[in-house]
Amino acid sequence: SLSDRLTATFRSLRGKGRLTEDDINTTVAEIRRALLEADVALPVVREFTAAVRERALSAEVSAALNPGQQIVKIVNAELVEILGGQARDLHFAKRPPTVILLAGLQGAGKTTLAGKLGKWLRDQGHTPLLVASDLQRPNAVTQLQVVGERAGVPVWAPEPGNGVGDPVEVARSGLAHARDKQYSVVVVDTAGRLGVDAELMAQAANIRDAVDPDEILFVLDAMIGQDAVTTAQAFADGVGFTGVVLSKLDGDARGGAALSVAKVTGQPVLFASTGEKLTDFERFHADRMASRILDMGDILTLIEQAERTFDAEQAERMAAKVTGEEDFTLQDFLDQMQQLKKMGSMKKMLGMLPGMGQMREALENFDERDIDRVEAIVHSMTPAERTNPKILNGSRRSRIARGSGTTVAEVNSLMERFDAAKTMMRQMARSGGKGVPGMGAL
Ligand code: GDP
Ligand code: MG
């Protein structure tokens, strides 16, 4: 499995500090294989791996993760983003009824979904009505009626014995009925064909025009594999849709279809269907789907653990410094600066918090290249100098400046700032450890 292969790759990468082009290529090649195995469409795989490579090349090196783990983390984040992140809520009409149109191939799971959605909406306090606009198959209406009964949701269907009937007319009269009886949501079930078909698309488009839906949900069988892209594209062009529902996720499909469709159409997956029962239905979770596609839940868990452990260790160490139990060292100073670099993106937010204006100003004046300089200087010191900077006399300082490619003036300036930070940490220790971590480095 991908997990095994990546674990092996990680072992060979362990202990290296940087993301090299080689590391990235090795890991990206494994990811690429995994995506193809998960039935992600080839053009999507290509574009995706290119994006990941770029992101990995420009990524900051993590202290908590080895390079392989870091790339997987990037891959996962990218997947979750394409899959739509946190699934959005349904768009409800300002003035009810909200109209939801279901579209998709025959057997995709539309009628089953109508029941599931009906129950789900009802459980949330809505009053849904299901509308049987699939008049293609003889038993389609009956199937929806059975599903509706089980869900406890009424079904609008053409009068029996009225001939074949017109699905557009049924949809229109269903909506009028819903307005009349004040149903809050109308779910319109439509016909599908076994393959993409012009007549079917035209019918769905006509129903769409008759009811002006707030949501058009494209229902996609997750087992469809490589065909997902062409099918989704055909529905996007022929009917258009605002969201995707993936069905049959209880099967063993790895769910590559989700990625293909989300990437090609740019529409989010909103729900997942995971069985034939009415309750086998949930909001779509992009993070779960990402690890399913990559087939590496355990690796993601390991990555999370590694980061958590690292954060906890750092926090504990910093707490010991702040309370004065431990000496604040140059290494701590460097760590703090690196934390600040990460916080760079928080500048704006900090400015909006009361009392944080000063902090923001400091961040604004904070030069990121400074960190590289500080790092070079600290690394040019001997361990003894790092733990006890008091011994840094003139000749040591000029040796350090030479070794770090800086000037003595820069070394002096760093030592002044370090002393100031140390004083600040001591003050924070005296005030009971209250203060903003990272402030010392400013
Ligand atoms: P439609 O033609 O799009 O209306 O599809 P149906 O709702 O009739 O579903 C086709 C078949 O797939 C039926 O046998 C359903 O019971 C089954 N089905 C639908 N959704 C799921 C699902 O999430 N999991 C499984 N295992 N079966 C499903
Ligand atoms: Mg159906």
CATH architecture of the largest domain: 3-Layer(aba) Sandwich
End-to-end Cα distance: 47 Å
Structural class: alpha/beta
Secondary-structure element order, as H and E?
A: HHHHEHEHEHEHEHEHEEHHHHHHHHH
Rg is 30 Å
Topology:
Layout: H1 2-13, H2 21-37, H3 42-57, H4 67-82, E1 98-103, H5 110-123, E2 128-133, H6 140-151, E3 155-156, H7 167-181, E4 185-190, H8 198-211, E5 215-221, H9 228-238, E6 243-247, H10 256-265, E7 269-273, E8 281-283, H11 286-294, H12 297-322, H13 330-343, H14 347-352, H15 357-364, H16 368-379, H17 383-387, H18 394-404, H19 408-430
Parallel strand pairs: 1-4, 1-5, 2-3, 2-4, 5-6, 6-7
Antiparallel strand pairs: 7-8
Task: Give a quick precis of the structure.
This protein is α/β, with parallel strands linked by helices and 442 residues long. The protein is 57% helix and 9% strand. Strand 2, helix 6 and strand 3 form a beta-alpha-beta unit.
